[in-house]
Amino acid sequence: MALSRQSTASAAARRAIFLVPLALALALRAHQALATPDVLDWDETYYLSTAVTAAAGHGLYPYVLGYGPMPIAGGLGYVAYVYALAVRLLGPSIYSLRLMSLLASVLALAGVWRLVKIWYGSGAAWIATAIAASTSLFLLSNTVRMDGWTLACVAWALVVFAWAMERWDRRAGHVLAGLAFGACLQVHPDVTATALACGFVSLIFWIGDAWRARRFVPPVQPLLFLAGWSLGLLAFVASNVLPDPETFYRTTKPEVRKIYSGEEARKLALKHRHDGPWDEE
Predict the structure, then answer these.
(1) Which of 9, 255, 261, 278 sees the fewest Cβ atoms within 10 Å?
(2) Phi-psi bin for 67: left (phi > 0), alpha (psi -120 to 50), beta?
(3) In degrees to the nearest 10, what's the CA dihedral of 132, 133, 137, 139?
(4) Of the candidates 187, 194, 185, 189, which has an alpha carbon nearest to the alpha carbon of residue 253?
């Protein structure tokens, strides 16, 4: 009984070593996000305008940049509608969007913990989660950029991929892993880099199978992963690109910093609240 209590206390102490700094990091992120009235990053202007425009039912695009009506701007995925939902539920405030971003960052850390636990156990998972909370990407989680959502999506897609690799002979898992990364395109197109890396890992595992068998082995698992990801890509093209290809390419990488100065962006984002032409007299 005494040994059991001592073991439990030791486990709790080990968790506290990582949980306390992690909680402090989240608290600092939340304080800065919810106590700063000015923009923390220029992209907050972009996303707040997009959220207000979408919440009004005029499309998922930043009216503040002077664009005409469109279904969705290039570089955005439909997951950005969570910000429009925040505007509808909590009002057109920068704080409501930052709150959603903070929630996404918590989901991201949970995904990192789960991923590392699969491979290395709970001790390493707590260490990895604490490290993830100190990265430059996580430091942007208190802004309304899509970084928190991207990190969360990639982390949980990697969880699915790790699950598939642990069950190498189960074909469905590889399709699901590819689908997970394909779905992440609706968060941010840059997740393609991680999908390619996972595809390369799957390819290496297949080469290992062929090497051990001393004969040609069909690359079933890599092809299934590719097929799943391709389905997500086709869905992205059908929903984001084909409705208006010219607008998609024109708005994918707008040179917004050349259009407005930082001071102008602050005024547009916070003083005028991105009201669109439907609110002008």
Answers:
(1) 255
(2) beta
(3) -170
(4) 189
| Model-wide pTM > 0.85 | no
CB–CB of 76/189 below 8 Å? no
Are residues 60 and 73 in contact, defined by beta-carbon separation less than 8 angstroms? yes
Length of the chain: 281
C-alpha atoms less than 13 angstroms from C-alpha of 78 in its C-beta half-sphere: 10
Q: What angle do CA 263, 56, 254 make, to 5 degrees?
A: 45
Q: ∠ CA 197-221-184 to the nearest 5 degrees?
A: 45
Number of CB atoms found within 10 A of residue 88's CB: 14
Following DSSP, what letter does each residue of 133-161 receive, concatenated? Answer: TTSHHHHTTTSSSSHHHHHHHHHHHHHHH
pLDDT per position as a tens digit, 179-231: 999 999 999 888 999 999 999 999 999 999 889 988 888 999 999 999 999 99
Q: Tell me the β-bridge partners of 72.
A: 60
How does DSSP assign 186-248, residue by residue?
A: GT-GGGHHHHHHHHHHHHHHHHHHHHHHTS----HHHHHHHHHHHHHHHHHIIIIITT-HHHH
Q: What is the pLDDT of residues 83-105, one digit of tens each?
A: 999 999 998 888 889 989 889 98
Q: Which of 39, 64, 34 is nearest to 262 (CA)?
A: 39
Angstrom distance (rounded) from CA 188 to CA 149: 9
Radius of gyration of the chain (CA): 22
Token output for 206 = 């297949």
* Contact criterion met (CB below 8 Å) for 51 and 97: yes
